[in-house]
Amino acid sequence: MGPVVEAAGELDYESAPQLRRVLRGALAVRPAPAMLVVDLAGVTFCDSAGLNVLLQIRLDAERQGTVVHLARPTHIVTRVLEMTRADLLFPLDPDVPAVRETGGG
Question: How far apart are CA 99 and CA 55, in angstroms?
């Protein structure tokens, strides 16, 4: 497994840079993790800036062989993912894996 990052609150223009920093930090561990889990259970809002962070991190992770899993997406996040068809790009997990190696967000 790999790191688990918990995101909470609003994923928008103001919070996107912080989430990006945390996720990039989680990807920077060596050896590169096989999986990065983003726990979205605490997210109350997600706009295009939040979605853009998730999509960019997915690309960054893919370059190093890491798969980004989105765990426990709220209805708000699920709706954004489905409307943009980004749900087809991520494994979506109804639960967070039992072992947590890191947190943040």
Answer: 24
